[in-house]
TrEMBL record:
Any one GO BP annotation for this protein: methylation
Keyword field: Methyltransferase, Transferase
GO molecular function (one): 2-polyprenyl-6-hydroxyphenol methylase activity
Domain of life: Bacteria
Name of this chain's protein: Class I SAM-dependent methyltransferase
Domain Methyltransferase type: 58-153
Species of origin: Micromonospora sonneratiae
Entry keyword annotation includes Metal-binding: no
Amino acid sequence: MTDYLAVNRANWDERAPAHATSPDYAVDRFIEDPNFLSQVVQFDLPRLGDVNGLRAVHLQCHIGTDTLSLHRLGARITGLDFSGASLAQARSLAARTGADVDFVESTVYDAPKVLEPGSFDLVYTGVGALGWLPDIRRWAQVVGALLRPGGRLFIREGHPMLWAIDNARGKDLLTVDYPYFERPEPMVWDEPGTYVATDATFTHNVTHEWNHGLGEIVTALFDAGLEITMLVEHDSAPWDALPGSTVRDEHGEWRLADRPWRLPQTYTLQARKRV
């Protein structure tokens, strides 16, 4: 297999500055309004509960908008990402907003080597993270290693059913065309753009990605010493995952224009490490 880390890192490094200046990440709103929270964190506030005072780590934090949002809710948080360019933007955002947030450059799988194992009350992961990892069991073992007994994982992620769907044959026709279950070899994409509004052009356009079935994720967490305490499937996503087939709702989320109950687009999962 080609070095997926090098390929994916080049893609994220190149896109980080464009993401930081795109209105979709709302960096200006964070700077102007000390109470502003990211859309992803805001969506899950009723499920997230009180994080004030918790020692937390945000895995695959990218440019740090969700990380900063959790800090604003009172968490003592560290952001971790493998993209140095993304972390440069995250540190800049923290500095411009006066936020005391640490950022660490590392792959997810190496997180227990660069962070203190068994010391975190909360491990957080946001939308669009797991698909960059080839082995969901290794990810779950990392989560279990970082959490203290009784600590919890909180994640909102794209639903594996969504990642398996293609709507290129027509806006009303959803085709299951990509793997639902984890496969040894990645799906290799060569796409010139990015998922936010930007005028930037890119040269590192190849990515290697994997899907992980919901059962695979739940089983991996259980085997890593965690118990599922919440699993909610949503018919919406915070980005337009199926252009031409979706409409935006009053909360800024995107759902199918035609019979949205056909497809779960995201899910929120919480799990606690067994004591």
